[in-house]
Amino acid sequence: MSNKKLIIPERIVTVDSEERILTNTAVEITDGTITAFIPLEKFDVKSYEGEVFNYPGLTLVPGFVQTHIHLCQTLFRGLADDLPLLDWLGQKIFPFENAHDKNSLRISAKLGLNELLSGGTTTLLDMGTLRYQEVVFEEMIASGIRGFSGKCLIDENGIDPKFKNDTGSELKYQRELAEEFHNSDSGRIKYGFAPRFVLSCSEELLKETKAMMHDFPGSVYHTHSSENKDEVAEVRRRFNKENIEYFNSIDVLDENTVLAHCIHLNSGEKQILKNKNVRVAHCPSSNLKLGSGIANIPEYIKLGISVSLGADGAPCNNNLSVFTEMRLAGLIQKPLHGADSMDAKTLFKLATIEGAKALHLDNEIGSIEVGKKADLVLLDLNSPLHSMSGGNDNIYSDIVYTSNSVDVNAVMINGQWIIKDCESLVYDTKELISEGKSELKKLLTRADSVK
Ligand code: GUN
């Protein structure tokens, strides 16, 4: 027998091609897929054969998509503040990641997943870490989230020579993981090939990884690029090229490539991104906190480059809220390019349908439409901090500029409730905190080289 659910919210922000906002309408979900919009005027809810979830006052939106996250770093929140990228990596992040054992990695992933889910993120692209990557996949599967992860690849490391593997074992382990986890849990989990960045990867590793990707259709190629001026200068010194020019010269750029940051680009590089249909994962909080710079996102959007949003990792943000990223993505552009350079609706779309497009999942998620997966979020926009208008007109403004994770009342993925009445059905948050504290203490004793 099919499993039917009916959600009756105050309004539905569909993000469909007409950008409809529906009221007096229920959404029907059958076996995890959205099967109908039902106008309520002439509908007898009492005789409905299925579970009915009444949410008067709440706003239904598509589950949010974040296209650049480091779950392995959640445990390091607050331990790496006020440093620029290369010092941040060398003094803190690489030694911390190198000190992970399976238990610390597991709780780091769980803390990150709990924060993302309770804040309405239903799909993520994660960068993984150097060892025990299967733990990240296991926790993503157990959490119910949709998304990609992959073993973060490092076979060269001038920043922290202790934190790397040899090329052959990187490629071997990567293939084993992709074989085991790509399309696991009925396709909800996919492989995201993850060479860390130019400065940590040999040309062989970058190219062989791209070649391997073709054996795993639906996977993506995910790396960092052009984030920091010292990083860009070092790439230029080594290769006499800019990051994007270098990636292009070794033929790893296409529509399946997701590049995090892309701040320091010349006009030729922007044209390459456009021509190769590369996806940019914009991380405004991280880019500000690491002092990296401000990517010219309005220009990228005008050029037709795919842009979506990511909170990056907890130690460079220091939170994983998609609401913070939407808000900042707007605010940082306004003094530079004008108050109308990024409007609330555009920002909301970057975190929903544009994220889905970046990952080639827009046939499945990113909007509320019949035939798509039921990845849904219910927002309570009725607090005294929200606008008093209560209508549809400024709904994007209320979500993007005013709301935060605390306004998420419920989250559903694939038709399954993950958060209900602001409570996680997956995690005991108190337990996560206690385990997180205990594992961090042990990790810090292992990471004795951290300055
Ligand atoms: N570049 C290489 N590794 C990282 C990382 O972990 N975070 C960020 N923000 N940039 C990177």
What features would you describe in this structure?
- The structure is a single chain.
- The chain is of the alpha/beta class and 451 residues long.
- The protein has 2 domains: 4-62 and 372-420, Urease, subunit C, domain 1 (Roll); 64-358, Metal-dependent hydrolases (TIM Barrel, Alpha-Beta Barrel).
- 36% of the residues lie in helices and 22% in strands.
- The chain is built from 16 helices and 18 strands.
- Strands 1, 2, 3, 4, 5, 15, 16, 17 and 18 form a 9-stranded mixed sheet that branches. Strands 6, 7, 8, 9, 10, 11, 12, 13 and 14 form a 9-stranded parallel sheet that branches.
- The longest helix has 18 residues, at 429-446.
- The protein is globular, with a radius of gyration of 21 Å.
- 52% of the residues are buried.
- The mean pLDDT is 97.
- The structure holds guanine.
- The site of guanine has 12 residues, from helix 1.
Q: What is the overall number of helices? A: 16
State the CATH superfamily name of the largest domain. Answer: Metal-dependent hydrolases
Cα-atom radius of gyration: 21 Å
Architecture per CATH nomenclature, i.e. the level-2 architecture of the largest domain? Alpha-Beta Barrel
| Distance separating the two termini | 59 Å
**How would the global form be characterised?**
globular
| Strand tally | 18
Q: From the structure provided, what is the oligomeric state, counting identical versus distinct chains?
A: single chain
User: Based on helices, strands and strand pairing, what is the structural class?
Assistant: alpha/beta
Ligands (ions, cofactors included): guanine
Estimated helix fraction = 25-40%
Largest sheet: 9 strands, mixed
At the third CATH level, what is the topology name of the largest domain?
TIM Barrel
Beta-strand percentage range: 15-25%
Domain count: 2
> Which CATH class of the largest domain applies here?
Alpha Beta
Write down the overall mean pLDDT.
97
